[in-house]
Write a structure and sequence with these properties.
This protein is α+β, with helices and mostly antiparallel strands. It is 36% helix and 18% strand. The chain folds into 2 domains: 276 residues, no CATH class; 231 residues, Glutamine Phosphoribosylpyrophosphate, subunit 1, domain 1 (4-Layer Sandwich), CATH 3.60.20.40.
């Protein structure tokens, strides 16, 4: 609890960096940039400045909610024909050909900073915001259990999908993330990234232009092109982050806001739009009916998402219809409380990401999500810059008629979606999570437990979670449920046809969620962080 500012992030050092900025008088956007840049250093397996980010920003001065899309577009040479000519039926998950979209992170930081500087006030100097990240990249950061775990998985020779196997086959990955003897860093050992420190210093001194039009861009592109990659200097120079309109849906007495396409924010809202037609309170939290209803609502929302979601600059998406109360009612009538629908489409299990939330003393609020797609992204650390490139573009389809087909200049379908719940037009709950397909599901868990059942923020985050989807190597979905759910509830779900798989308690398969709740009567901020991650909610 805190009376002034509050921040929650999936790594405690990032939370500390943000809090330091708030204490120095910086605004919520300043603090979010400090946390996001720090996460790119201390949580390298989950995000990088070679990835993308999306922002929801509430401006307390103007009572305005803004959305900033800082995702990268496919390069000018990225075509279906290019990959087909090389014999690919799908874009590789790893390597130089997976890095086919421009990294958007840095453009997001700078565009958000300029907006806050002009309209919020209290902005600290740009260079100060990256100071903590630079220091930890240069002097080292303690390795977390999460980093050791995911590094070991990625250097394993036993990955079921050969395209994901043994990232040490890329020399730049090996030099950056492994010890000289080829082993992973262990928990508590100090991990340094001197090349990334130099890159961050250049950005701190010269701004985003250095990343997109200066030596950093030149070094990245030179390395890519020397190894058969696709991105060009023109791709980098033309990139920009865009302000877009947030989307919303009613949930009980609140207004849920999320991010528009090219993200799956529409699916997160659709789930709530469907659940609005059920009396969850009467069902009871943690009952078989509760889990069944949300899982079935998720399946229906994902059908719509997969039919329509892509870059709206290339595809017409009927958002008004999809998020209308009428459509939510129609979908709700399709839920059979006794029988689970069997999905045909195998859901994508990946999405290594960080979400963070900030509220400052003036009431400005940020919900920010930043990602490289798979853990360690493409596996390519480009051009002696220390920049790990994302593999988000591997999600494009090479099928010419697919809604998310690869096209030059196109943004791919993104699982990332930062969220915010407003009450009387002002922020009530700032929330989000990492976890690909799990993001809409976990968002529904947090909202329903707080709104319908009166859980505290921390209790809502810690409560048993579930994930409808598959794991790598599996051809079909299952319903993963933490073992804390009572056996009688699990048995009832199995009897309804759910392919239940009981998983470890507090497993990070469920993602790293976070939330900040603002009591509008007292202005007290209540922050929560996920025990499944390495984060902390702290305030002052």
């Amino acid at each position: 609890m805190a009376m002034n500012g509050m921040v929650t992030a999936p790594h405690y050092l990032a939370s500390q960096a943000a809090l330091d900025i708030l204490k120095q008088g910086g605004n919520a956007v300043d603090a979010a940039i400090a946390a996001a840049s720090k996460l790119a250093v201390v949580y390298p397996h989950m995000n990088s400045i070679g990835g993308d980010n999306f922002w929801l920003i509430y401006n307390a001065k103007t009572n305005e909610l803004k959305a900033l899309n800082a995702s990268g577009r496919a390069g000018e040479k990225a075509t279906i024909d290019f990959y087909r000519a090389k014999g690919y039926e799908k874009i590789p998950y790893r390597g130089y050909l997976a890095a086919n979209t421009v990294p958007g992170v840095v453009s997001g930081w700078e565009e958000a900073y300029k907006y806050a500087q002009q309209s919020m006030g209290n902005s600290l100097p740009w260079s100060k915001l990256l100071g903590s990240a630079i220091s930890y990249a240069k002097n080292g950061t303690p390795v977390t259990p999460s980093q050791e775990h995911w590094t070991n998985i990625n250097i394993s020779l036993e990955q079921k999908d050969k395209d994901l196997r043994a990232l040490q086959r890329f020399q730049s990955f090996k030099q950056t993330y492994l010890k000289p003897n080829g082993e992973s860093y262990k928990v508590g050992e100090v991990f340094k990234q001197p090349q990334l420190a130099q890159t961050l210093e250049a950005i701190a001194q010269q701004g985003a232009a250095e990343f997109y039009k200066g030596e950093i861009a030149q070094n990245i592109v030179k390395d890519l092109q020397a190894n058969g990659g696709l991105l060009t200097l023109k791709d980098f120079a033309q990139h920009k982050a865009d302000w877009v309109e947030p989307i919303s849906a009613d949930y009980r007495q609140y207004k849920a806001h999320n991010f528009p396409p090219n993200t799956q924010g529409m699916a997160s809202l659709s789930i709530l739009n469907i659940l609005n037609n059920f009396d969850l309170k009467k069902m009871g939290e943690g009952t078989a009916d509760y889990y069944h209803t949300i899982v079935e609502a998720t399946k229906l929302a994902f059908v719509d998402r997969d039919k329509y979601l892509s870059d709206p600059a290339f595809v017409k998406i009927p958002l008004d219809m999809l998020l209308s109360k009428k459509h939510g009612q129609e979908l709700a009538t399709r839920i059979d409380m006794k029988v689970a629908v069997k999905e045909r489409k195998a859901l994508d299990p990946k999405g290594d990401t960080v979400w963070l939330g900030v509220v400052d003393k003036d009431g400005n609020a940020v919900s920010l999500i930043q990602s490289i797609y798979h853990d360690y992204g493409s596996g390519i650390v480009a051009g002696n810059t220390g920049v790990l490139l994302q593999n988000r573009g591997s999600f494009f389809s090479l099928e010419p008629k697919h809604v998310n087909r690869l096209q030059p200049g196109k943004r791919t379908f993104h699982t990332l979606n930062p969220a915010m719940l407003l009450k009387n037009g002002k922020p009530y709950l700032i929330y989000g999570t990492m976890g690909g397909e799990g993001q809409p599901q976990t968002q529904a868990a947090i909202v329903t437990r707080i709104v319908d059942f009166g859980f505290s923020v921390q209790d809502a985050i810690e409560a048993p979670r579930w994930l409808q989807g598959r794991t790598w190597g599996a051809s079909a979905n299952d319903l993963k449920i933490e073992g804390r759910v009572p056996p009688t509830v699990i048995q009832a779900l199995i009897e309804r046809g759910h392919p239940v798989k009981v998983v470890d308690n507090y497993t990070d398969t469920m993602g790293h969620a976070g939330a900040i709740l603002i009591d509008q009567a007292t202005n007290m901020k209540f922050g929560g962080a996920d025990p499944r991650g390495d984060g902390a909610a702290i305030g002052y």
